[in-house]
Amino acid sequence: xxxxxxxxxxxxxxxxxxxxxxxxxxxxxxxxxxxxxxxxxxxxxxxxxxxxxxxxxxxxxxxxxxxxxxxxxxxxxxxxxxxxxxxxxxxxxxx
Length: 95
Hints:
- The protein has 95 residues and is mainly α.
- It is built from four helices and no strands.
- The protein has helices at 6-30, 34-46, 60-68, 76-87.
- Helix 2 packs antiparallel against helix 3 (60-68).
- The longest helix has 25 residues, at 6-30.
């Protein structure tokens, strides 16, 4: 059985978000205004930012994608902490 750490899963989710971000940028290049008028509002709605201040397991991937839209990339350690909180795992000690 494959054992994946929260850190590894966080890095995987961030990598997927980066790929999705590339698609969004491609669409924005082809159709100016699409990102701000259509894509970002839908992502913000899907992320339930107003309904759930703390991310749920369903919201977390969308919130990671939204973070990739800004200037500061997602922090793998913060994503790992969210995953540990959501999955009920005890945080792993750094050695």
